[in-house]
Amino acid sequence: MRQVKTLGLLGTGVIGGGWAARALHFGIDVIAADVKPEMEAWIRGAVQNAEGALSRLTFAPLPPKGKLSFTTDLLAMARQADFIQENIPEQLELKQRVLADVSRVAPADVIIASSTSGLMPSDLQKSMVAAERFLVAHPFNPVYLLPLVELVGGSRTTQATIEAAGRFFTYIGMHALHVRKEIPGHLTDRLQEALWREILHLVNDGIATTGELDESIIYGPGLRWAGMGTNLIYHLAGGEPGMRHMLKQFGPCLKWPWTKLEAPELTEGLIDKMVEGTQAQAAGRSIRELERLRDDYLVDIQQVLRKYNIGAGATLRAVEERLYNAAAESAATNADAPLRLVETEVRPEWVDYNGHMTDSRYLQVFGDATDALFRRVGIDDAYRKSGRAMYTVETHVSHLAEAKVLEGLYVSTQLLSVDDKRVHLFHRLRRTRDDVIVATCEQIYLHVNAEAGKASPLDAQVHSRLDAVRAAHAHLPAPEQKGRYVGMPRA
Ligand SMILES: NC(=O)c1ccc[n+]([C@@H]2O[C@H](COP(=O)([O-])OP(=O)(O)OC[C@H]3O[C@@H](n4cnc5c(N)ncnc54)[C@H](O)[C@@H]3O)[C@@H](O)[C@H]2O)c1
Question: In this structure, are 138 and 39 located in the same domain?
Answer without folding.
Answer: yes
